[in-house]
Design brief:
about 300 residues; TIM Barrel; eight-stranded parallel sheet; two-stranded antiparallel sheet; 10 strands; about 15% strand
Length: about 300
């Protein structure tokens, strides 16, 4: 039976596309609230240049102010070797290396072709391994690109082959602009399954076109993968600043509700605390909650 792991990405992907940049202490409090709600694996920061993503500046300062004694695996997103070097000097236990699968997105996002980014990723993975960090590689725009349109499965397969040749622990497929449908999720799972060789499989869905939750439930039904990790962001905030109109992470509380009702997921997360945190975060961002459960409430209603 496939196990499901929820990876909270609110402190990173949930904030990087918001108009308001939160102070270091507020970001640290967000992480602490999520830990208190039971989150045990979380993409907490991004080690990118602050000129590119000002909402993520001060990653080291954020990590200096979060709980380190609660059994939490903190993930730092990196784009290159410099990001890995920064991450290695902090309490993160994992790095998530981003590799776009189209030249159109890669050149705009990271200033290099996909072929160049594969070599950059290979070097970053080797450096992270030397630093004894766990390593994920996320394939950005794996289901569709804002600049090149549909991403055909053979093209994705080429990049997957290059990545699975690296010494990584997990491979993730990101629907960066929220265009995927369950059929594609199943196709990707069938394609990558024989190549995993014990590596974990992870998906990152956006709800831009209201298909994110259907995609997540489809991923949760994949058989034979051991553990499927699903990214989500408290409150459904966020998106990609490098992709036009790419808003709307799937909300952690909405995803959790669906998984519990659909498959009886046992996860250790406190749904009420997550909803309260979404409301708290909405106030700090001055932005409305995108998920629905904080408005509708759980069912059956808890006392």
């Amino acid at each position: 039976m496939t196990a499901i792991e929820i990876v909270e990405v609110g402190p990173r992907d949930g904030l990087q596309n918001e108009a308001k940049t939160l102070d270091i202490d507020v970001r640290a409090e967000l992480i602490t609230r999520l830990v208190d709600a039971g989150v045990r694996r979380m993409e907490a920061v991004s080690f990118v240049h602050p000129k590119k993503v000002p909402q993520m500046k001060g990653a080291e300062d954020v990590l200096a102010a979060v709980p380190l004694d609660r059994g939490v695996s903190y993930i730092g997103l990196v784009l290159n070797q410099r990001g890995v070097e920064r991450a290695a000097l902090t309490p993160v236990s994992e790095v998530n290396v981003v590799l776009p699968v189209t030249d159109g997105f890669s050149s705009r996002n990271q200033g290099k072709t996909v072929a160049e980014m594969i070599e950059e990723t290979r070097d970053s993975v080797a450096l992270a391994r030397e630093a004894r960090l766990n390593i994920s590689v996320t394939l950005a725009v794996a289901f569709g690109c804002p600049f090149e349109g549909e991403v055909q499965l053979p093209r994705l397969h080429e990049v997957v082959l290059a990545v699975t040749d690296m010494d990584i622990d997990e491979i993730a497929f990101a629907d960066t602009i929220g265009v995927a449908v369950p059929r594609q999720v199943n196709e990707v799972a069938s394609m990558v399954g024989p190549l995993l060789h014990g590596r974990r499989l992870r998906f990152h869905f956006h709800n831009t076109r209201n298909s994110g939750y259907a995609n997540a439930l489809s991923a949760a039904d994949i058989e034979g993968a051991g553990t499927i990790a699903l990214d989500s962001a408290v409150g459904g905030f966020g998106g990609c600043p490098f992709a036009p109109l790419a808003t709307g992470n799937i909300g952690t509380e909405d995803l959790l509700y669906s998984l519990r009702r659909n498959s009886g997921l046992s996860d250790g997360l406190d749904l009420k605390d997550l909803c309260d945190t979404a409301d708290w975060l909405s106030g700090h961002l001055g932005s409305p909650i995108q998920s629905l459960l904080p408005k509708a409430g759980d069912f059956p209603h808890s006392s």
